[in-house]
Amino acid sequence: MSLESLPPLREALAAHGLMAKKAFGQHFLLDLNITRKIARLAELNPGDRVIEVGPGPGGLTRALLETGAHVTAIEKDQRFRPLLEDLAAAASPGALTLSFADALTVDEAALMDGAPGHVVSNLPYNVGTALLIKWLTGPWTPASMTLMFQKEVAQRIAAPVDGDAYGRLAVIAQATCEAQTVMDVPARAFTPPPKVESAVVRLMPRPDRPSPARLDALQKLTAAAFGQRRKMLRASLKGLGGEGLIVAAGLDPQARAETIDVAGFLRLADAWLAARARTAAGAVA
Question: Please, which residues bridge with residue 52 across strands?
């Protein structure tokens, strides 16, 4: 058996009586022309280690395997085990590893054996943002991410400052990565078609990625600032230092969160960490 000898995805799904589950946010991408384009956008080299979340029937998985990458597919829905096991048997030995688990709780570093790994996925709609935050802020940093989201979420990731979509997700994503929307995917490309359009975002880690402490501070500050985005910063950040913190960061206390660029939020994080350090030193003294 080989990848070329596998039946078309629609036939494989029909043979196993499989349909998308709404509870899992599933929409199958069965057009191999589209999945191959996503694989090309990921810029993979033969032998690269890749994590794919939510492979479902394996359309994108097939395209990733065609690049010569070694793929670890994480699937929560056990119904796809026979299909994916057929795909693993057809692939080169060791090219496809299956992990039937919840991607929100898996240890990616353990799956990759400590090696750098890329993430390429058509993410389930209901957990896409949570997974992205995990990879942006957690202990395991992917070498790159090429991810499909609802178009609205993709716009929020790559949004410019002071735009309608600019918010906490944009700040965290752009503080840690270079983020760019690289492909739009119409609803009709999926089975069943979702009610929204989709888009693929390419994220490359920044060389000046914030330290864990700085990133933790950034998450706290953006949660407070954008949680009350209609308020001025001096009000929304009152519980975290208020006007004194904002002035220390070189920002206008009367500004609103959506007008503060990523660099400004990082200065806020630095000012907050410095204030905590001074408080801790005073307590020791």
Answer: 73
Q: What is the CA radius of gyration of the chain?
A: 21
Q: Of 210, 226, 224, which is closest to residue 270 (Cα–Cα)? A: 210
Cα separation of 198 and 207, whole Å? 29
Query: Locate tokens 């989201």: which residue?
Result: 149
Q: Are 69 and 83 in contact (CB under 8 A)?
A: no
What does DSSP say about strands 177-185 and 118-122: parallel, antiparallel, or unpaired?
unpaired
Instruction: Give, rounded to a whole angstrom, the gap between the first and last alpha carbons of the chain.
Output: 72
Name the packing angle between helices 212-227 and 128-137 (round to 10°).
140
Task: Give the DSSP H/E element, type plus range, for residue 219.
Answer: helix 212-227
Residue 1 CA to residue 5 CA, distance in Å, equals 6
* HSE value, Cβ hemisphere, 13 Å, CA-based, for 144: 15
Residue reference for tokens 């395997």: 65
- Cis status of the peptide bond prior to 192, with omega within 30 of 0: yes
pLDDT digits (tens, 9 = 90+) for 99-158: 999 999 999 999 998 888 999 999 988 899 999 999 999 999 999 999 999 999 999 999
- Classify the C-alpha dihedral 28-184-178-233 as positive or negative: negative
By CB atoms closer than 10 A (0-12, 13-18, 19+), residue 54 is buried
User: Mind giving me the DSSP string for 14-27?
Assistant: HHHT----GGGT--
The 10 Å Cβ neighbour count of residue 130 is 11
Q: Which residues pair with 98 in a beta bridge?
A: 73
Q: Which of 51, 49, 57 is nearest to 26 (CA)?
A: 57
Chain segment 216-265, per-residue pLDDT in tens? 999 999 999 999 878 999 999 999 999 999 999 999 999 999 999 999 99
Q: And the tokens for 29?
A: 């991408």
